[in-house]
Amino acid sequence: MNATRLQQLRHDATPGWLASVTDAREALLARDAGADVLDAKNPRAGALGALPLHTVREMRAALGPRPLLSATTGDLVDMPARDLADASRALLDAGVDVVKIALYPASSLADCIDALAPLARRHALVGVLLADRLHGPCAPQHLHGLLGAMARAHWAGVVLDTADKSAGALPERMPAPGLREFIAHAHAHGLLCGLAGSLRAHHVGELAPLRPDLLGFRGALCSAALRTAGLDATRVAEVAAAMRAVAQAPARAA
């Protein structure tokens, strides 16, 4: 099962990395640089903008069956369970291994998580929480319960990201103690845990000791560090080198 393939990333002492890509050319570039997950996303359509299904199919065809391919369902802030289930099934039919779903603080959030449980039993669903949208049912005091609900509904993992990419990287929005607590809560519930949000190569050494399972990148990989620009081979190589450096370093305590 694809959920099992995703969970295998937790067996390493150092995190894997995810590259958000917009087309088959970018996906191949990131794959060849060593990215563990290729994430189909439209950065021009928001933090979790969805790509057309035909583009996702082209990525799958270019990559072949082996690399893990994830894709986002889009920024559906009202958390409509039926729409999210339909979008998830369409992405799975297009060949993705992992579906990423933005978790917004809507009144329907809890019902949506439960409603997607039948799909999550068979496929890898990953929820994406936004550090600058942690209020209402996503408020810090509710996070432990929210992650527990995701685990009970068979979701595979959770990523902490940011919505406003102009307001600084995730470590600037949430200091290390908060990130460490978030990762600990996710792991306590058996969820794979990723960190993203305007991360740059220099953040790798800072975040790896916190023991996330994945670090996600887009802007750091792009020309002029603009997430809406295309991937730049030199910048992709810089992130890949930073990830290799932490993998080769002696194990450090979290």
Quick structural summary:
This protein has 254 residues and is an alpha/beta fold. The protein contains 11 helices and 8 strands.
What would you say this structure looks like, in words?
This protein has 254 residues and is of the alpha/beta class. It has a single domain (2-248), classed as TIM Barrel (Alpha-Beta Barrel). It is built from 11 helices and 8 strands. It has helices at 2-7, 24-33, 53-63, 81-93, 109-115, 117-122, 143-152, 170-173, 176-188, 204-207, 233-248; strands spanning 16-21, 37-40, 68-72, 98-102, 124-130, 157-161, 192-195, 214-217. The protein has an 8-stranded parallel beta barrel, surrounded by 5 helices. The radius of gyration is 16 Å and the shape is globular. The two termini are 30 Å apart. The relative contact order is 0.15. The mean pLDDT is 93.
How many strands, what sense, and barrel or not for the largest sheet?
8 strands, parallel, barrel
CATH architecture descriptor: Alpha-Beta Barrel
Tally of individual domains: 1
Looking at CATH, the homologous superfamily is Copper homeostasis (CutC) domain
Q: What strand line-up does the widest sheet have?
A: 1-2-3-4-5-6-7-8
Features:
254 residues, alpha/beta, TIM Barrel, 11 helices, 39% helix, globular
Ordered list of secondary-structure elements with their pairings:
Blueprint: H1 2-7, E1 16-21, H2 24-33, E2 37-40, H3 53-63, E3 68-72, H4 81-93, E4 98-102, H5 109-115, H6 117-122, E5 124-130, H7 143-152, E6 157-161, H8 170-173, H9 176-188, E7 192-195, H10 204-207, E8 214-217, H11 233-248
Parallel strand pairs: 1-2, 1-8, 2-3, 3-4, 4-5, 5-6, 6-7, 7-8
Helix pairs in contact: 2-3, 4-5
